[in-house]
Every structure is written in C-alpha cells, then in structure tokens.
User: Fold this.
Amino acid sequence: GDKVIDVIDVARQADSKMKLSAFVKYYYSPQRPKVLNVISLEFSDTKMSELVVVPDIAQKMSWVENYWPDDSYFPKPFVQ
Assistant:
C-alpha cells in the first residue's frame, strides 16, 4: 500500500493527510496550486533507513542517544 503522510498547507497553517505518491506528484509538478510542507517523514523502520546516515553532530547532541537509560521502562523513541 501507499504510505499516508502528514502535510501542512502553508497558507492556511492547516494539517492534512496525503498519500506519499500524491505528494511526490505534487512536488514534481511545475505549477503547484498551493504550498505544502512535510515537517517530519519517519522512515527509520523502512528500507530507506539504510540509505541515510545521521550527521555526527546530531548524534553527539542527541539526548536520546547519550542519556536514554538502557534499562528504561519506556522504549527508546524512533524519532530522535
């Protein structure tokens, strides 16, 4: 199936949902009727995660990576 993502209509500052394939079509369209923004696209649990490397500075500054207890009752969050 096609992944559904959260998008923001910039002019209205309104959240909505859209299929990723529809957003890609919008993104590559030469004339866009409105400005849409994708703030966060979580892909850490997908095949795409193998293609992305977290910048060193982000790892060094990550509170989750540096301070999340190994024996925590709560699981380490994906989005970091």
Summary: The beta strands are 4-9, 14-19, 36-37. The CA atoms of residues 25 and 62 lie 34 Å apart. Residues 20-28 form the longest helix (9 residues). The chain has three helices and three strands.
